[in-house]
Amino acid sequence: MLFATAICLLLTTSASSSSLQWHWLNNPNIKPVSPLAHPITIHVPPDTDIWRPSLSKHNFTAPYLYTVIPAAHFQSVQVTVTAPWKTLYDQGGLVVAFPDRHSPNRTRFIKAGIEFNDGAPALGVVATDVLSDWSLSPIVTTEQQTKEGDAKATILVERDGTDAWVYVLENGGRTRRALRQVTWAFNEDDAQGLAREMQVGIYGAKPTEEAGEEHAREEGIDVSFSGFALRTGLRRG
Ligand SMILES: *[C@@H]1O[C@H](CO)[C@@H](O)[C@H](O)[C@H]1NC(C)=O
Ligand SMILES: *[C@@H]1O[C@H](CO)[C@@H](O)[C@H](O)[C@H]1NC(C)=O
């Protein structure tokens, strides 16, 4: 009976995106809204990050707008992100997370988007199974810019069997370039097994405070998102 009820809820969730509940993590006093319906700008304060270089330095302090779905239903999520990136590690994009209720420092996550490094915005992906690792790829097409010259990218995280693949969409979405293959995402061989639920959403982070007289240290960054799309559904086989 319990089982039947659970299945019923799952079907409802995947059938209609309007039934998804949205939540903010680390954004007190801001009402959550669905990014599916309209563009969203997240005001990101400094000294925020999502990053785990050791179990005792688990850091999930960035504003994160997310919904929860059954992990078995996840197919893909994509978003276009831009911001006036200017300071080391300014970043924003997608986060998919597999929370560990018993031990928050063991929450697994993938974050993918734009991150400012070596004086320029780049495509950054962090995959965190036990601890975080990070990779950067260049932004190569000039179309990936706003009128103001800010770097912009459309990022896709897609399930392929037990993997999650991270792509950047280019040429107006006609082509995609692989940034990362994450083999643990939906893999029951992973030490933590298959997650039952996952969080899917958008975030921005600003690990570095502004320096210099013309900036206040508490100055943040506004990270803007459009075209958020989440595909879910029951998987065959
Ligand atoms: C998270 O990272 C930011 C940026 O490095 C830092 O300022 C902040 O103190 C960290 N918070 C925690 C809880 O680790
Ligand atoms: C988990 O991480 C926090 C920092 O975010 C730290 O204060 C705490 O000691 C960590 N707990 C464990 C069990 O490592």
Task: Give your account of this protein's structure.
This protein has 237 residues and is mostly beta strands. It has a single domain, classed as Jelly Rolls. Helix content is 6%, strand content 46%. The chain contains one helix and 15 strands; from the N terminus they run H-E-E-E-E-E-E-E-E-E-E-E-E-E-E-E. Mean pLDDT is 90; it is low at 1-15. The structure holds 2-acetamido-2-deoxy-beta-D-glucopyranose (2 copies). One 2-acetamido-2-deoxy-beta-D-glucopyranose is lined by residues 55-56, 58-59, 105. Keywords: Signal.
Task: Compose a concise summary of this entry.
Keywords: Signal. The protein contains one helix and 15 strands, in the order αβββββββββββββββ.
Characteristic terms for this protein:
237 residues, mainly beta, Jelly Rolls, 7-stranded antiparallel β-sheet, 6-stranded antiparallel β-sheet, 15 strands, globular, disordered N terminus, binds 2-acetamido-2-deoxy-beta-D-glucopyranose, signal, ConA-like_dom_sf, DUF1349
User: Roughly what is the average pLDDT, rounded to an integer?
Assistant: 90
* Rg: 18 Å
Overall number of domains: 1
Q: Any guess at the CATH architecture? A: Sandwich
Largest sheet: 7 strands, antiparallel
Q: Number of helical runs?
A: 1
Look at the helices and sheets and give the structural class.
Answer: mainly beta
Find the count of extended strands (DSSP E, 2+ residues): 15
Bound molecules: 2-acetamido-2-deoxy-beta-D-glucopyranose
CATH top-level class: Mainly Beta
Helix content, binned percent: under 10%
Overall outline = globular
Q: CATH fold name, please?
A: Jelly Rolls
First and last CA, distance: 23 Å
Stretches where pLDDT is under 50 for at least 5 consecutive residues are 1-15
The succession of helices and strands, N to C, reads HEEEEEEEEEEEEEEE
Question: What fraction of the residues are assigned to beta strands by DSSP?
Answer: over 45%
